[in-house]
Amino acid sequence: AQSVTQLGSHVSVSEGALVLLRCNYSSSVPPYLFWYVQYPNQGLQLLLKYTSAATLVKGINGFEAEFKKSETSFHLTKPSAHMSDAAEYFCAVRPQGAQKLVFGQGTRLTINP
Amino acid sequence: EPEVTQTPSHQVTQMGQEVILRCVPISNHLYFYWYRQILGQKVEFLVSFYNNEISEKSEIFDDQFSVERPDGSNFTLKIRSTKLEDSAMYFCASSEGTAPYEQYFGPGTRLTVT
Q: What is the pLDDT of residue B94?
């Protein structure tokens, strides 16, 4: 079965520093990949998605992610963290032929002033 | 901007009672979903619904669960006889189509079973 692993349940960076949130998926066939963000007391908001068009995907709020088939990874990055980026981030895959999303366990991002 | 809405935001119920969680998907979307997140655990898929029938479901979605689109705007999840382990945040989502269309999520209903 398809699975998603997010390394690090909690990541803390300083304001202005690089944000790197890791996501690895298990699949022999590249699935569709997504990053969602959840702010406190809110629902899941789509940051970006990979659908095989381009390996480097740009999303909202300055985030981007790079699909690397050889590493089965889809890590999320942002060059300079802002206090407003503090939230929980979820990587998800949609297996080929399925409608469901399979989520990773989430990474809580904390931004230090 | 269109959004998915869910009511209530928080539901407290006693074990064995029936609950109905309600969702209003985005109006031109055709696929509807329910997910749940038990505190401290992953977001888990429950069911997808298309053309007035279940199109995919997980092993979690057993006979105590049912979904319905009672009218042109609402999408509901019914839990017939709640158990303590049903306590979770339940998210509704909708999408225009299947992959690669993204799913748009509502804010969730926190269900507490006592």
A: 96
